[in-house]
Each structure stands twice: as C-alpha cells, then as structure tokens.
Amino acid sequence: MIIVMKPDSPESEIENIIGEVKQWQLTPEKIQGTTQVVIGLVGDTATMEISRIQELSPWIQEVLRVGKPFKRASLEFRHGHYSEVVVNTPNGPVPFGKNHPVVVVAGPCSVENEEMIIETAKRVKAAGAHFLRGGAYKPRTSPYAFQGHGESALELLAAARAATGLGIITEVMDTADLEKVAEVADVIQVGARNMQNFSLLKKVGAQDKPVLLKRGMAATIDDWLMAAEYILASGNNNVILCERGIRTFDQKYTRNTLDLSVIPVLRDLTHLPMMIDASHGTGKSDYVPSMSIAALAAGADSLMIEVHPNPAKALSDGPQSLTPEKFDRLMQELSVIGKTVGRWSQPAVALA
Amino acid sequence: MIIVMKPDSPESEIENIIGEVKQWQLTPEKIQGTTQVVIGLVGDTATMEISRIQELSPWIQEVLRVGKPFKRASLEFRHGHYSEVVVNTPNGPVPFGKNHPVVVVAGPCSVENEEMIIETAKRVKAAGAHFLRGGAYKPRTSPYAFQGHGESALELLAAARAATGLGIITEVMDTADLEKVAEVADVIQVGARNMQNFSLLKKVGAQDKPVLLKRGMAATIDDWLMAAEYILASGNNNVILCERGIRTFDQKYTRNTLDLSVIPVLRDLTHLPMMIDASHGTGKSDYVPSMSIAALAAGADSLMIEVHPNPAKALSDGPQSLTPEKFDRLMQELSVIGKTVGRWSQPAVALA
Amino acid sequence: MIIVMKPDSPESEIENIIGEVKQWQLTPEKIQGTTQVVIGLVGDTATMEISRIQELSPWIQEVLRVGKPFKRASLEFRHGHYSEVVVNTPNGPVPFGKNHPVVVVAGPCSVENEEMIIETAKRVKAAGAHFLRGGAYKPRTSPYAFQGHGESALELLAAARAATGLGIITEVMDTADLEKVAEVADVIQVGARNMQNFSLLKKVGAQDKPVLLKRGMAATIDDWLMAAEYILASGNNNVILCERGIRTFDQKYTRNTLDLSVIPVLRDLTHLPMMIDASHGTGKSDYVPSMSIAALAAGADSLMIEVHPNPAKALSDGPQSLTPEKFDRLMQELSVIGKTVGRWSQPAVALA
Amino acid sequence: MIIVMKPDSPESEIENIIGEVKQWQLTPEKIQGTTQVVIGLVGDTATMEISRIQELSPWIQEVLRVGKPFKRASLEFRHGHYSEVVVNTPNGPVPFGKNHPVVVVAGPCSVENEEMIIETAKRVKAAGAHFLRGGAYKPRTSPYAFQGHGESALELLAAARAATGLGIITEVMDTADLEKVAEVADVIQVGARNMQNFSLLKKVGAQDKPVLLKRGMAATIDDWLMAAEYILASGNNNVILCERGIRTFDQKYTRNTLDLSVIPVLRDLTHLPMMIDASHGTGKSDYVPSMSIAALAAGADSLMIEVHPNPAKALSDGPQSLTPEKFDRLMQELSVIGKTVGRWSQPAVALA
To answer: Domain named DAHP synthetase I/KDSA: which ranges (chains A, B, C, D) (predicted)?
Structure first.
C-alpha cells in the first residue's frame, strides 16, 4: 500500500500515521517529494482495506494499492499454475481449464417441460456439447414474467441428465434453495444479478459442487474476482468465471456489451478457468455464432450457448436462442477453429 | 405494444403474427408504411413481455412498448395521487412523501458497539434526524473486510431505538435473516447489490414493515421501478426508493455518480416517496453537504446521511461519514433551505 | 510518480530504470516490499506522461501519479485563490466566480430569425438573465438536421446584444470560423463534442475572449481539466467550465445524466468558475427547473438555461427549452434560493 | 415514425397533430388503444428529426422511429450489397470489404524520425502488412505531451511509402491541415475524439481520398453511422469504420473496452467495411494478439495493429505497441486463422 499525503501536510500528522501503521505490524517507509510526502507500507497488506487506511487522517490524499485486492483467486497464489476444474458427469469427467479442450455448455434459458428439455439435451449432445444448461429458478426483471418452474424443473433436469449423460448447469437464486439445486446440478450457477449477493456466495463456497460465477452487469474485473474470492475463501476451489456482457451506454442493437478482452486479462490475473456466454452477451441469436467463434479463437476455456427447439415459443429469452439446426452449424464452425487452435476435444470424448 | 416488421416482410408472416396475437385477446391494427409494416396491439399489454412477442417471427424488427413496464409503481395506478409511507417510531409516526417535510435518516455505516451507536443516535436525534441508520449485516466487496456484527448488532440497534425513540433503518442481505431484522427495523433496507435479488424482494414484499429499496449500481429507472413492483405485487405497499449513486466511467474523485435527476423523473413516473443518499452517492464526506442541500432543493422527500462519532476509526465507510459536529452544521444549513422550500418539519416534530 | 514493479522483477531491470530516471533530473527512491519493489520519483513530474515511464520496462506493473496531471488549472497553481472571469458586456462587467452572484445565461438553442432572437433576448433580460446564448453554428448528430444559420446568425446575435445590452455566448465549431465568432461573442463556447478537438482548444487559447468549455459526454474530470489546461497553456486565463450531462447506461427518461457532484469536486481541484447547463443535462424542459435550483443550492457559479419563445416550433432542441413564462417563474424560484444562499445579484446589477 | 400520445390526451390535441403532420406530406394513421392513442406517420421520414415531432404537443409521450436514422450508410441503401473500398497504393490496389481478404494496417502511434519510420515500414511490409499507419498530428490528452512532428512527419511518411510501396494511413485533426494530409495519405483517418467534429467530417467528405472513421469513445452505433453519413452525404463514398474501444466503468486493466460485437452488428446495418484496432482497444500490447485473432475470426475486414521498433523509447503509446518480432509472430498466427476462414490474402498479394 502507498499513502499519498496532501501537499503541506503537517509533520505531526505524518508521524501520527507512521505510528498507527507500525501497530499493524507494517513497516512504513517515507519518501519526501518536492511537494508531497509518500509513505510506503511494507508487509502483508493484501487483505487490508484501503478505506481503513484513508480514515487515519484527513491529510491523506489517496491510498494506492500495490498488488491485487484478491489473493486466492490470483495467479500468484498458485505460483503461475492454472487451475483445472474437473466436473464429474455421467459421461465421464470433463475438465475446464487453459490446457484442456474448450467445453461447450448448451441448452434453453429455462426448463419448460419434459419433452422440450429432453429433446434439447439429446440434440445438443449429438452436436458435441458437454453440458446442458437450463433454468429452474429464473431471475426476471418483471414480477409478471415467467419465473421458472422451480423444484419440478429440477426433476426434469435430472431426467435429461439420466437420458443423455450430460452434466447439468443450473442457477441458484436463494440460499434456501441451494440444497435442492445442488442435488441435481453438476455445476451450480450464480447469476449476474447475484454476483454480489454475498450470503449466497458464502453458502455456495461452503458446499462441494463446482460453481459457475457470472460477471455482474456493472462489475469491474476486481469486483468479479473478489466475488470469486468469497467462494474460494469459504473453502470451495472449483470456480469457473463466466463473462456474459456488461452494461454500457449503447443497448440498442445488443442487450449488453460482450467484453471479450476479459480473456487475456483474466489469464494474466487469475488461475481460474473462464467461460464466455455470447447468448446473454449480445441478446440476439444472429450475433451468437461470430462472438462464440471469436471467444474460442481468443482462448476461452468454455462457451455457453442458448439453444431452444422452438425459440418462437420460448417462455424466456427466445430472441437469443439458436435453433438446434443453427447450433449444429455453429458447432461445425467451432470445430474447425477449435482444431486450428488445438482446443477441440476428440470425437471420442464428445461421444463418450 | 407496437410490432415493427422488417422491410419486405412476407405477407404470410404478417398474417401469422396477427393470428397469434388475436389468440392472446389483443386486437391487432396494421399500418402499411412505405417500406415497413407496423402492427399496433390494442388491449392489456402492461404485463406482457417484449421478448415473447419478438419471438413470434424472425421478420419482426423491433417490438416497442407503449406505456410503462411497471404498473402498481406507476403514478397512473394511483390516478396521480402520491403515496405517503407512514412509519411508526417510538417518537410518533413519521410520514415520507411529496406533501410532507423532508425526513432525515442518519447514522453510521455499521453498528460497531453499544457506546458508539447510542452516542451517535443521541447526537443525530439532537440535530433533528428522524431515523437512525446502521448496518448489522454488511455487504462488503472483500471477504476479508468487516462483515458486520449481525444478530448482536440488531440488539444494539434496538437499544439505541429505546434510548432515543428514533426509528431504525437497517439492511437485510439474506432471506434467512429477514425475520430477525424485521423484529428490530422500522424500515427494512434492501441494498444496491441486492436490488435484483428477486427472492429477497418477494419476501420483503410478503411482510409488513416498510421497505427502503436502494437503486442498483447499473439499474435503469425502469429496472428500479420493476424491482419496486416485485415488492408491491407481493402485497407490501410501503416502498421508499433510494438513489445512492450509479456506476459511470469516472470514479476517480467520487465513488459513484449521484443521479439527482431521478428526483423530477421519479415524480413524473411513480407515486412512491424517494430518498437521496449523498454519502454513498459521492463516497467523500466533503461532498455530502452540498449534494444533500441540492437534493432537498430539488424536491427529495428524504435524505440519508452517514454520521460516525470518529470517522478515522470507523470499521467501514469512514471516508464518507460526517462527524457529529459537521452533521450539526449541515442540519443547520438544510433547515434554512428546507424552510425556504416549505419542506422542513416544525421543531415540535423534531423534538417529539 | 510512483513506479510499481511486478513481483520478482530482476534487480538489473530495476537498476536500469533507476539509471534512466536519473537522466531525467529526477531522484529515484526505492522501497523494497515483501513481494514487490516500488520506486518513488522525486522532482517535477507534473507534466510527465505516465506512458513514457511505463515503456521503460516490461517489468513495470503500474505507474501511479502522485498529484494532478493538470497544473495551471489546479487550485494549487493559484495557491488556493479562486479565479474570477470578468466579462465586459454592454450592460457592464459581469464577474463569474465563487465569490460572486450566480450568473444566468439564457436563450434558444439556435438563432432562427431576427424577431425570435430579439424577442427572446428582451424576455430573458427582463427576467434577470445576464447573457444571451444562441447557436449560429450547430453541431447536429444528423447531416440532414438544421445546421444553424452560420454567419448571418452572428449578425442577429450582434443585433440582440445591441438591443438589450446582454453579453453573447455562442459556439465555435471550426478553427476557420473563430475570428468571425470572436467578433460578436463576449464568451466563446467550445461544445461537448469538441472538448478534445485540440486544434480548436489551442486556437481559442491564443485569442483574448473568455472561453466556455463544455464537458465532453464521456470526459472524466481529469480529461476536462486537461482540456482547460490546453487553453490556459496557450495563454488565455479566462476559462469557465460547463457541465452539461454525461453519457451513462440510462438514457430513457433523460438525454444525459447531469453530474451535479462536479460542483464540490471542481471546487476542490480547480480555481476556475463553473456553470451548470440543466437543459442539455436532462434534455427535458420539465426537469430543468428542479435541476437548476439544485445546482444553485449546491454552489454553482452560473446557470445555462434554454429558453425559446415557442418551443413547439423550435428548429432544434425544442423539448428541452422553457417558454419565457416558465423561465420567468423559474427565475422567481431561483431568486428565493439565491438570496437564501447569498448568491443572488441585486436588482441594480440585473438592470444595469 | 410513431407518435405515442399520453393517456387521456384531449381529442383536439390529437387532431391538431394530425393536421400539422399532413402539411409535411405525411399520412397519419391513428390507432386507438385502451389507454393511449398511437399515430403512425406514413411517408419518407428517414431524415426527419424526432425532436421536431416531439415539439408538436406537450401531450406527446414519445416519438419512436421505425427504421434507421441513417440512410446512405444503411445496407438497404445499396439493396443488401456490401461496399468495397479500393485503395490505390504503390504496391497496387488494396480492396477493403466483406468479400476480400483481411487488410492489415500496422505501424507506430507517431512518426518519430526517418530511420524509425522507414525501418518499421520495411518490417511490417515483410511480415505481410498492406498499409503503414503513423501519426503526424497527434491528439494528446495533455498539452505538455508530444503533439506529433506535423508537416515534417508527413514528408517522412511519403518517404516510407516510396521506400516500401505500402499505402499510408494518417490522421487529420484540423480542417486547415486537410490538404497537406491528403497529399500524402492514401487513407485519411478521423480520430475518435473528432468523430463528431462535423466541420471536419464535411470537409473530408468533400475530397476524394478514402476516409477511416474511428468510433468515438462514447459513440453509439447510431452516432457512429450518422458520422459516416456526414461523409457520405458530402459526396465521398469511400468510408471505412474503425472500432477502437469504448469507455466503460472498468478502465483498470484495459484502457478501453473493445466492442467486438460491432462486427456482426455493423454487418447487419451497413454496407461499409470495418476495421478493428485492438491496440487502442485494449491499450496493452499483451492483449493485442488475442483480440486481433478474435476480430479476424469474427469476420472483421481489416485490422489495425501498432508496431514500434523499440516500444520502450516510443514518444507515444509505447505500452500498446508490439515489437516487430511480436508482430511477425502475430501475423503468423493470424495467417493460420485467416486461411481457415478464407480471409487471408495469397502471398502473391502480400508481396506485390
């Protein structure tokens, strides 16, 4: 940490700060600039809050952090080794990570009925997907919109899992539902709107299933990694980060702005695997193929793609869902790029 | 609702849409433009989702909503009459609303210990505040930061209430804690990070205590009013909206961008009372007075102001807290403007 | 400046940087932290670019600036004394600044014809305005929209000036027009879209008329003050800053988000006077009164308010213009608050 | 255009609007909804301003545009045929467009001296680039930063062109410099900060050289295409759009947020070719390769990549420049993906 004092700060104030800081087992080092004094704090400041220091004196102009605010999520924490999150599915273990083939997660926004979810599961499996996504509990902007079938949808997901062997990814919205969701899900999703629902983060961190953590609409990279840190600090090391578009000033042609630059940025900062969801990221099915291909080419570890057997009749998010036919075509295109960049799984795995 | 068809849409597709729409008890009216067809949907479309319609055909260019997506929160729902939310406090009922004096809510970010919360309560009461704010459960970006004293802090708030007669406003973060919080709080706060925690919204809507709903960091006005709609639709009519700053591209000198224009905008759209929190809105105590005065002059119904007996030692949010002395001075300045605009409560009330 | 090295930077790299920096007449001071080295640069770094330093080595993690990137615009540059910008108008000198009454600038978006501009000038003068605003050259999003009457409109502004004695504020869009504009204008406006048109900034800085510098739609406070610095560094000290709303994620009910917190922030950072334009800031005439009143209460030095004799027939920006009657009423309300906060000019001045 | 009236609008007001609108040669069609009236305007409204209509009555709730605000830039204007912009360079004509190989533009941020620019030109040509970029006039946030060598740098660009046969892309910042720039440049760049410098747009539109139009930092897609429309409407059809990152709430790890979703969006909306500048888009050389590869995979027509022989000594934007060695490697990777997607030029062309 570095404390920058305001110009003309009284010497007594500086001494005061230095005294306080020493009590925190930190070694202060003072640099006398031409107009301002700067105090470097040497020691373990990783989990120290900036605001705690700022409050020490009204003469403090700014407190700057050297190093990152997150710790367990950082690449340094694992000495530069990238994590792999291995998920056990009926079809066998599927690893997410930098050194593994890209993992494709596909399925409808919400689970509507048995026939549709099983049909979709079979179609996406045949096309090469490794996981089925589908919402039982749906966060909807309007209280009058379809809120998901809840518990009964979880049963349908279990049936689709049994029928296809695909792993299941589904969202939990309430700590009260966690146990039920964890019974069915192979990966538990925390949605964008709950990214800073810290109670929920602690509870998914205190159970065993891997967690897919979507980025909040206005979450900085640091906010997002700090949310992951909540889960890691609660004892669960299996966290996958999912970019799904951020909110910017232009929402006319795309619902969100898909921030693909997180791919190299996260690779620099964290050991955790990352997924790109171009369906929510753009909100329009026409834009999903090119953005999914771009994500794969840029190095994403996993792709989430919404697929619905009949988007025109979907109970939610139809406009961003691909038909199974379009998904087949996209998987074909992805496989070409995926093989080129060495991130495509062998047919044997896809068909396992 | 208005459906805008793409140029050169096939006639059969248009007929198809018209057929579907009639099944929904809506009357479609077609306008043939020079290049595009537009279909107006006459009937009750208030709670209909745009995406449901958009999915009807790939030839639909856009679906535009006429009227607002929210209903119970709208000013029209109460035929232009503004709500008043009356909160019973030991000192007597305190009404929030357009036709009432401005209500001042003050107190520390978090409840730290008995002495500090009771001292603060006494000081802010003496200065004319009507409510004490103070966090028992604290949403913090970092898992390593102070998370609030939880249940024991609720007891201290109850003690401060008993000691001063002030109403209590405190935050609930988890549906599991709602009952405990509701026992102590006169107004239950839903924080910015939980504004779209729909499980929580439904549950605070299903109980009786008034709810203070903070605006999310990236919430549009519509998102915010839809969140209020969740509470209203669940049966609780006592909702107060609180602006606390939004996230924009400039976060160097203020933590958030306080959007004071919500004051006239909300007055146009909704009957609900509104509060402005300049402490979170700016993040710096030096900027709180001018922004609180501006909010009052612009017509806010209530002000939230963080006050801490010793900001330099605060466990959270010290940099944005006023000292009791600075709060006294600000209340003095507010009273001058408040009297000028006819929104200041008589001393008799402040001292009740 | 502070250089933060990446963890495990080679000692030779650090020595290298220290060597380079010494050649720039700076004194490097090294702090050895537990995982990272930090190098403080002592000396005159105010006008040094961060990127120049960052390029010294790929082992540099970050370069942090201590102090501000602007110099002449800073409050320190004038040792804490606030500037006053005094503009000579036919009615006498009008000072803008912290220690002067609020200055009101009113008039239409664009100059449409002689009758309308002279009528408007008379009406706003009668209501107490000190300046007439009106566009001769108009920046319009669409090439098909009315672009202003150009040179002939400048003549009409001169006529309105002669008829009322009001000072004239009008925009320059092209360096080629500067001379013509400067002949008529008492204050030359640089619009939001040209805030970083550096050629234009240098040229308005190299002439004598005071300059009104509007904040760009996505300009940070630092960007804005650096744009002012261009004018100041070119020799013109008479700069007034004008906030007119920034672009954020919500543009449904207001065209821009008026950032009133710039009032206390700028007061902290710069000696320059500041103006608030609630007409562009909100884009809706209904919201202009409350936001103008808020700006005055918060301490703005000047207000810009669009007034049009017949907004329904305006050639541009009608929806945000007040009628003369509404402007009269607003001036009445402003005078009440203005007197309360001691920032309202005596009638004698308004009628001078 | 669609006019949405407020609930309970008086019939006389509606008749009034209908009367006005007929005078504009438009056919109004009225739809009577359950609470609101909607009026469709049939006729040529493409170049009509929304605000002109909104001003017709205070009872108008909203005016919605059917179809796009731009015309010449729209894909419909060319009946679904994509433009190609063919630039004549000493090495032969280079076409930009959907049906052509990707065009690579490389070079330093600014032209520093003869040796560096010629060396860079030779290196990027050898690696397969088609154009040399390099700034003679540089828009810099600070007046104290290097502003470019101006006219003398133009001569050096001409020398590099002569030495290598590469086409030249360089920026014009001031209408006064246009002629000089056009003498040397094969493509004239309008920078992000001047995207809405309408005087400059009109003047580059009135000359013959192709124009590269960078997206403004806070420009919506519509704003950007309207800026292109200025150039097209002034008579110059050779416009290339360049995405270079937008400003969002997170600027810690990337300077801007590169919006790659413009690739499919622009393809839907406009016939104009598009370029992606990942160097400015991310601001960090480490992130340029993956984002350039993503852009190519997603279908961009052209890539701009900053290359500097010695980034550590660059006079501007060093941190985002690749060394020639890294550029060689990136071109190698691009060629693999480019061949896979069928957008890579034959060696014969690159060496022409």
So the answer is: 93-336
